[in-house]
Amino acid sequence: MLGFLKRRRRARLAALPFPEDWARILAANAPAYRRLPGDLRNQLHGHVHIFLAEKTFEGCNGLEITDEIRVTIAGQACLLILNRETDCFPDLITILVYPSMFYADMVEPDEHQQIVSEYTEDRSGESWDVGVVILSWEDIVDYTSTGRAGYNLVLHEFAHQLDLENGAMDGMPRLPDRARRDTWRSVFSEAYARFERATMSNRRTLVDAYGAGDAAEFFAVVTESFFERPLALRREYTALYDELSAFYRVDPASWPLSGGETGTVFHRPRARRRRRGG
Asked: What's the rounded Cα separation, in Å, for the pair 163 and 127?
């Protein structure tokens, strides 16, 4: 009964008219939105209604949560669930939004788990496994104004949420069967190894060098490139692009061009770390 009631409530939400002000916000702050075919755009509008009705937003350090903040984050996050059977990030409860980068106190043991280092680290976003995503609003809007194609904080942190749906943040989201998991593991391992060789040699990389941290970060940054620089990603990592297209069930390389797919990504100007709980 609860499942039926949830589906019916969500169907009502998805059918609501999409406010013109919200569409203008997404057109201004989400480059991929401007490229969406009409059917996917209508589907995204429905997802945004559901997301905003079910998730809580909290401003931090004095930030006032506005419609622009809510709609920008919801619209970009929901790009990841188009055409997919999904429960709309079921484990996510709250999005904390800071006005700019924030600081986290870190405790890190050495390789023998004995000597502990304590330090403070600046961050732009975190994705937790306890129902929380943390984002810097400045970093969300900065990439749209600077034209840094391939950089998208919201896509990055919400890709981590999808990664967690299989029970671990390990670079493999929940897949339907063993055959798909085996193919994913093979394709991603080859692409990740090639990417790591490039970053270790200090060569320019299409995919953000931040992804060299581990497999989970690689999945998050290639998700950014998949939606933000799909043509370039398909050229450089064809098999990887095909795997992402099968998982996300969209083909951004086929969407109309908006003139935003330019530039080469180097290292991020600010750290963007994930955090498991806490």
From this structure: 10
65-93 exposure pattern, b = at least 16 Cβ within 10 A, e = fewer: beebbbbbbbbbbbbbbbeeeeeebeebe
C-alpha distances (whole Å) from 50 to each of 16, 29, 43, 56, 167 are 10, 20, 11, 12, 24
Contacts of 41 (CB under 8 A, 6+ apart): 33
- Cβ–Cβ < 8 Å for 108, 117: yes
Return the CATH class of domain 10-254: alpha beta
- Smallest CA-to-CA distance from 91 within 177, 175, 158 is with 158
Name the residue ranges covered by the structural domains of the chain. Answer: 10-254
Characterize the bridge pairing of strands 132-136 and 125-127: antiparallel
Distance between CA 83 and CA 237 in Å, rounded?
A: 23
Percent of the chain with pLDDT strictly greater than 90: 68
CA distance 49 to 161: 19
Q: Are 122 and 102 in contact (CB under 8 A)?
A: yes
Residue 259 pLDDT > 60: no
| Tokens, residue 277 | 């709980």
CB atoms within 10 A of CB 154: 26
Q: Is the pLDDT of residue 272 over 90?
A: no
Q: pTM for the whole thing? A: 0.87
pLDDT by residue (tens digit) across 119-171?
567 788 999 989 999 999 999 988 766 555 678 999 999 999 999 998 999 99
